Amino acid sequence: MKRRLFFAVTFMLALAMLLESTCVAAERGVPDLRERPYYSIQAKYNDAASKVTGHFSVKVPVRGEALTELYFHLYPNAFDDWKWGAESRPEEPGYLKVRDVKVDGVKARHKNKGTLLNVQLPTPVRPGETTQVEMDYVLKIPKGGMRLNRFKNTAFLAQWYPMLAVKDREGWHIDPYTSTGDPFYSRMSDFEVTFDIPEGYQLITTAQDFPDPVSSSVTLRQANVRDFAAVITKDYEPVRGKAGKTKVNLWYQKGMEDVAQELHDAAIAGMEFFGKYFGPYPYKEVDVVLGETGYGIAGMEYPGLVTSLDKITTRKGERPAVNVVAHELAHQWWYGVVGNNQVKEPWLDEGLTTFSEFLFMEEKMGEDERDLLVKAAERTDEINREKGITSVESLYQYSDPIYGLMVYTRPAAMMWKLVDKLGKDKVLEIMSTYYDRYRFQTATTRDFIRVASEVAGQDLEPFFDRWLYFKKDRAPEKKK
Ligand SMILES: [Zn+2]
Q: How many angstroms is it from 331 CA to the middle of ligand 1?
């Protein structure tokens, strides 16, 4: 995500949805259920009631050790009982209620508390086996919610269905919602979503979408993504194009005509730039949806779909939000394809994404703001001295202004320092190697440092320790 308040210079964004599609699932054959969860969601949209209702099911392949329970995040419930800043309180609440929960066809014990749903499995499910959980649901879309939002004739469906929590060696990741950063962590999954929406709405999603407004029920499929976002709208027009073989659609509302073409050009340039330097974008389509999607959000990333503001205020005045579009698209690489635990180590995607954004702005837009970035990062030394906080903390450790500096600015400045140290080509090689090695997986800070050291042919741990953890050097630097 990118928040408005982060940099003195830039600002908000939103992305909307890109999806890869039906074709992909067909080409790749039946998803391997031993590998990835398979979501099947029916979603009937009632525009008058601002609700989505339907049936939800997910087939969960069990790996590692036997499971006796599953957890799901019901993030929309954060908007039912808003516990964060009054300024970001939704105008009208939203929620996600579930009922008739079944496991392998049999009614199951379950407990919902706030944004967390626990489902008890009647018998343990062993590694190599698959269990299927299903339920009916009612989603109320909040008016003025962050990301999940409704305005005019547009519904932004973000983190809108029961999202399977991740269980790994550390146990279940059932961290609560917070308004700081992107409090979401999910694994690669396959999706089949059937939308039933009133006539005349355009559907923009994580999958490859239908070019025209939808007139009846449609099923979209997308394999190998971490999330499935959708925008249901009558307010948007597209500008269509391609970056290589990837369809790049930019969606704008009335009043944004003056920036639509420029931002679409930037989106294509961004997709080409990141693809060339980091590695190929693996999906067929990406959608950029312009417009604010909630308080303080300049832009947001989802697989195959990003949101961005149309314009931002900079030192030079109001301008098209090119950097926000670039930022959110870079998240397709850092978050989308190479995942990380965004709750535990948010710097890993935000820092690399901010660096990618600045690389793009410098090389393609001729705008070198790295000095500004490095200057802003200097503030973090002070903050660390005062509060002891570093760039590798969980979301809950940061207040909003500190979050931007520690998680976006300092790591991006760190990467520029690495460019000074190793040269740009070497740093790009580090990023492309990291992308190649961890694509469709979840990486950690240690993984990144390991790859960087390997590619650089030197131990970079002291460098990263200093920048990320504010550690003093282990040995004094050699005099020149
Ligand atoms: Zn971001």
A: 7
- Please give the pLDDT value at position 315: 80
Q: Which residues of the chain have pLDDT under 70?
A: 4-34, 473-480
Other CB atoms within 10 Å distance of the CB of residue 80: 17
Q: Does domain 22-227 have CATH number 3.10.20.880?
A: no
- Going from the Cα of 134 to the center of ligand 1, the distance in angstroms, rounded, reads 32
Q: Select which of 161, 408, 435, 438 is catalytic.
A: 408
Q: Provide DSSP, 52-97.
A: EEEEEEEEEE--SS-EEEEEEE-GGGGGTS--S-GGG--SB--EEE
Segment 418-427, tens digit of pLDDT: 999 999 999 9
Q: How far is CA 315 from the centre of its chain?
A: 28
Return the domain boundaries, the chain: 2-12+240-469, 22-227
Predicted local confidence at residue 474, as pLDDT: 59
The answer to whether 408 is a known catalytic residue is yes
Which residues are known binding-site members for Zn(2+)? Answer: 327, 331, 350
Fold of 2-12+240-469: Neutral Protease; domain 2 (1.10.390)
Q: Is 328 one of the catalytic residues?
A: yes
pLDDT for residue 401: 86
Contact 243, 204 (CB under 8 A): no
